[in-house]
Amino acid sequence: MHRVGSLGERAGSLAAKQDCSILAYSHVATSAFAAAGGGKKVLIQMQPHRAAVRTALQSDKFLPQFRDQIRNELSWSQKVFATFLREPQLADLCIVASSYTHKTMVENGVSSERVSVIPYGVDLEFFCPADAQSNKFSVLFVGQLCRQKGLHYLLETWRRLKLQRAELRIVGHLPSNTSAISGYQSDASFLGPLDWIALREEYRRADLLCLPSLSEGFGQVILEAMACGTPVPATTSCGASDLIPHGESGLMMSTADLDSLISSLEWGSKKDKLQSMRPAAGATAEQYPWAKFRKNIVDQLRSLTIHGT
Q1: Is the pTM of this model over 0.70?
Q2: DSSP element (H, E) containing 201
Q3: Going from the N-terminus, what domains does the chain have, and what CATH number goes with each?
Q4: Which pLDDT score is estimated for 308?
Q5: How does DSSP assign 49-98, residue by residue?
């Protein structure tokens, strides 16, 4: 709170001094908007509305012994939680990356007219297909090893499926206390964090990138994987699922639904069905270069300052 508060105050003071509008990311925006002057205030809301995230975490009772060490909305003090709940209400405009995040904002009291959806982009020159597939059915997970990402559903699904000639590869920082994943270390390969080149190779060799999130603002790894030609099963509570036509470049799954995840991976294990998806995944990602994201941001800000809406 102190770190982001100090950064926000500095940014807001500069905006007030120069009598200009201000754009700020989640968390930093609260103090930035308080210190800013009378210009327009724009929030880039990176996560779903915080109340929606907390509800998703509180509602999930699957494998209660899977306790991660992530400081999420359940561990925040009431003061911190209340502060970040108010943040979207301080903005003239909230920019979000997905229709899912838009939905959570409106459900929690933010006017739909003050929320604009602009999907993120991907570096299409770096993330691109190559012939690096595994001779096994290979499923990849990339992200924080936590409940919010639905990792416990994926690990349990993999254990129950007992697929032959198959591998589950997990990329992300290992927790200092590995008790949550200790029972699954013989079922999956925990690779730890990887550099960009190694990560790209993992995307390329995988048959599927699986992201069974409980509540996800976007899921940048989805675009990165698709740009490498890798189809993605994702939940309806994962923002980037906006970009996945079901059965074409990926699969849509119900949130917090073990049976849905089992069915998706069982279907995907018949690798011949995935081959037609790989070009479709790449073609979808090609529609989202970072240049398009930047242009959409600029157009939205111009519209805000010109029309004052």
Answers
A1: yes
A2: helix 196-205
A3: 2-120+290-307 (3.40.50.2000), 137-285 (3.40.50.2000)
A4: 56
A5: -HHHHHHHHHH--SSTT-------TTTS-HHHHHHHHHGGGG-SEEEESS
